[in-house]
Design goal:
This protein is of the alpha/beta class. It folds into two domains: 2-55 and 300-392, Alpha-Beta Complex (Aspartate Aminotransferase, domain 1), CATH 3.90.1150.10; 58-298, Type I PLP-dependent aspartate aminotransferase-like (Major domain) (Aspartate Aminotransferase, domain 2), CATH 3.40.640. 39% of the residues lie in helices and 18% in strands. It contains 14 helices and 15 strands. The strands form three sheets. It has a seven-stranded mixed sheet, with helices on both faces. Helix 4 (80-93) crosses helix 11 and helix 13 crosses helix 14. The chain starts with a helix and ends with a helix. The structure holds pyridoxal-5'-phosphate. The site of pyridoxal-5'-phosphate (PLP) has 15 residues, from helix 5. Pyridoxal-5'-phosphate (PLP) binds at residues 104-106, 109, 135-137, 187, 191-192, 220, 222-223, 248-249.
């Protein structure tokens, strides 16, 4: 059935994605099912999105109840889930902050870029510094700060000026961030860049340099935030306070929502009319996000992510064979580094064994499973991954 759907897909969809190799009909917990009823243990989680797995009762309930009341209000009217979610996020951050809701990570970063323009306007700063191999989204603004020439070059001219620095090099960052810098955008660990954690002290050095020169530190936690690393926010776990924090992916547990949080003065930069979104912060997505946060708390999932993440790391350490170069990552956010560009083949071989993993780079396999993953799930997954590696290697 995947084959016939793929044929229809190819006839009508723009060719910006390769044709997906698998159709998904339903899911439950950490499992996905194709239209023929084959089961797949999902270590991709919709690219770090499905925080509570699939069809989690708390999300089903929250979304069903809200959509039965009112699905959309626009931002012309107040609604309880939106205000409650903003209060919740500010509470988790533990800093005075204000929230703007968008629908995606790119849009959350667009808000952050516009905040940096507002911040820089005071003394004529327009420059943004961002990281080589960093990823912030596909809109022109978020693409302009994405350090991947293959994604950027076809769409130039892009907004600027933007300076790119080697990720993890605190000296390069110190040189690039100066009095003309409006904002420094960093992920607290490259996500699309291959799940590369920030070196110890790097985010702290970024904080210090931004304080020295008066630039905003924008932490893009679209992938790392909301429990992925075993902490609500990966940057704060390192003791680093952002001026602006962006969230999306895991926040809605599968419903589309992004958030941009401005901390302290950065939360006061917009004047009425400066920014907006028709769908941003719609009550259904906000209800889902509240369910995600409540469930992470009620089921102690941050502790679970740390514990199961360690178990996963030990399992990855034990992978063997000529293809395996090592592994890296934190919590339930990990990558297996390969010795050759075989990630696509390993992904396919794992899929044939009922295991979904993601070839995030030609030589790296990303694991970003639902935060509800258990040790038993890990023990189920790893032999399949080893078998896939053995087949390809
Ligand atoms: C995925 C991602 C984005 C873009 O999010 P979209 O919802 O696809 O727009 C931005 N930043 C980071 C760090 C991401 O991982």
């Amino acid at each position: 059935m995947t084959t016939s759907l793929a044929g229809r897909w190819e006839a009508v969809m723009m060719p910006n994605y390769g044709t997906p190799p698998l159709a998904v009909a339903s899911g439950k917990g950490v499992w996905l099912f194709d239209p023929d009823g084959n089961a797949y243990l999902d270590l991709v989680g919709g690219i770090a999105v499905s925080a509570l797995g699939h069809a989690h009762p708390a999300i089903v309930r929250a979304v069903s109840e809200q959509v039965a009341k009112v699905a959309h209000t626009s931002n012309l009217y107040l609604h309880e889930p939106g205000v409650a979610l903003a209060e919740r996020l500010v509470g988790l951050l533990g800093l005075p902050a204000r929230v703007f809701f968008a629908n995606s990570g790119a849009e959350a970063n667009e808000c952050a870029i516009k905040l940096s323009r507002r911040h820089g306007a005071r003394d004529g700063r327009t420059e943004i510094v961002a990281a080589v191999n960093g990823f912030h989204g596909r809109t022109l603004g978020s693409l302009s700060i994405t350090g991947n020439p293959a994604k950027r070059t076809p769409f130039e001219p892009l907004p600027g000026p933007v300076t790119f620095v080697e990720y993890g090099d605190a000296d390069a960052l110190h040189r690039a961030v100066g009095p003309r810098t409006a904002a420094l955008f960093l992920e607290p660990g490259l996500g699309e860049g291959g799940v590369v954690p920030a070196p110890v002290g790097y985010l702290r050095a970024a904080r210090e340099r931004c304080d020295q020169v008066g630039a905003l530190l924008v932490l893009d936690e679209v992938q790392s935030g909301i429990g992925r690393t075993g902490h609500w926010f990966a940057g704060l776990a390192e003791g680093v306070r952002p001026d602006v924090l962006t969230l999306a992916k895991g926040l809605g547990g599968g419903l589309p929502i992004g958030a941009c949080l401005g901390v302290g003065a950065a939360g006061e930069l917009f004047a009425p009319g400066d920014h907006g979104s028709t769908f941003g912060g719609n009550p259904v997505s906000c209800a889902a996000a509240l369910a995600v946060i409540d469930t992470i708390e009620a089921e102690h999932l941050l502790d679970s992510v740390k514990r199961v993440g360690e178990h996963l790391a030990h399992g990855l350490d034990a992978l063997s064979g000529p293809l395996v170069a090592g592994n890296r990552g934190v919590g339930l956010w990990r990558a297996v580094a390969l010795t050759t560009d075989a990630a696509g083949a390993v992904e396919a071989a794992a899929r044939a064994r009922g295991l979904l993993v993601n070839a995030v780079k030609p030589n790296a396999i990303r694991l970003a499973p639902p935060l509800i993953l258990t040790e038993a799930d890990v023990d189920d997954a790893l032999p399949r991954l080893q078998a896939a590696l053995d087949e390809v290697g």
